[in-house]
Amino acid sequence: MNKKTFAVVLVVGMLLVVGVLSVISYNGMVGKDQTVTQKSSEIKNRYVTKISIITQLLQQQNISLAYESGLLTNITELRTRWMEALDEGQGDDQLINISDQLDQNFNNIILSWENYPLLTGTQVIVTLMGEITFQEERLSFARADYNAAVRDFNTYTKSFPNALFAGMFGYEERKYWGTELPDGDVLNL
């Protein structure tokens, strides 16, 4: 085999290897991205349910303490922003930010509820608080599943040789859900 033929075979072989690697890399990224998207949808469904229950809770007349403290206004505004962001197809980053704020306000409702014995005795409120607690547990598991999928996706797209192709295919690092600490720092997973 002469040098010219060898060079052509070598170039074609290298192009073939790069082509195969790019196809494998792309297909892997698509699969992992779809998993993250599916896990994100589970969290969104849980938040829609939680927001609905919180709205019912705040509508109870015995929660007037929450109305007086401005929690209703904050939660109503955040609920509207969250639903609009969801309807507009906003990215997970925007929904994560709004849901973090919503969770902080919900924690204030729990504190109000726990500090006023008259509220804890109302069966409707007890039932709704139980439903919210159940949704919180489900959200916790859904966030853990989502964050595991994000970790897999981010690891895959940052690993060699996938890191070479991720930018070309438009894949960027995904944000973890629920990793904000109260002081604004980020929890490293």
Written description of the protein model:
With 189 residues, the chain is an all-alpha fold. 78% of the residues lie in helices and 0% in strands. It has a domain at 44-166. It has helices at residues 3-59, 64-68, 71-87, 92-115, 117-120, 123-158, 162-166. Helix 1 (3-59) runs parallel beside helix 4 (92-115). It starts with a helix and ends in a 23-residue tail after the last helix.
Essential attributes:
mainly alpha; 189 residues; single chain; 7 helices
User: SSE order, as H and E?
Assistant: HHHHHHH
Poorly predicted segments = 181-189
What is the arithmetic mean of pLDDT?
A: 81
Cα separation of the termini: 55 Å
Structural class call reads mainly alpha
Total strand segments: 0
Beta-strand portion reads under 5%
Envelope shape:
rod-shaped
- Largest sheet features: none
Radius of gyration: 24 Å
**Helix content range of the residues, please?**
over 70%
Instruction: Count up the helices.
Output: 7
Compose a concise summary of this entry.
By secondary structure, this protein is mainly alpha-helical. The chain has seven helices and no strands.
Write the layout of secondary structure elements.
Blueprint: H1 3-59, H2 64-68, H3 71-87, H4 92-115, H5 117-120, H6 123-158, H7 162-166
Helix pairs in contact: 1-3, 1-4, 1-6, 3-4
